[in-house]
Amino acid sequence: MISMKVHGMHCGGCAGKVKRAVNELDKSAHIQIDVKSGQVEVQSTHPAEEIVKIINACC
Ligand SMILES: [Cu+2]
Q1: How far is the CA of 35 from the centre of ligand 1 (A)?
Q2: How far is the CA of 15 from the centre of ligand 1 (A)?
């Protein structure tokens, strides 16, 4: 599981963007986002670095 802090994510819209971006890469990924703390947890079979890259690119 990947657990990371995302800066610049302040509302449900941002969280939705992150979710969509990850799901585009991996349809079966499980994503949990806490908007207040910016904590994002992703369960995916894809390499962590790819997931992190995609999340960083959309915020
Ligand atoms: Cu937002």
Answers
A1: 9
A2: 7
Closest C-alpha to 18, from 35, 44, 28: 35
Q: Identify whether the C-beta of residue 1 lies closer than 8 Å to the C-beta of residue 43.
A: yes
Say how many Å lie between the CA of residue 51 and the centre of ligand 1. Answer: 20
CATH of domain 2-58: 3.30.70.100
Nearest to 40 by CA among 53, 49, 31: 31
**What DSSP assignment string belongs to 23-56?**
HHH-TT-EEEEETTTTEEEEE-SS-HHHHHHHHH
Tens place of pLDDT for every residue, the chain, 59 residues? 999 999 888 899 999 999 999 999 999 999 999 999 999 999 999 999 999 999 988 76
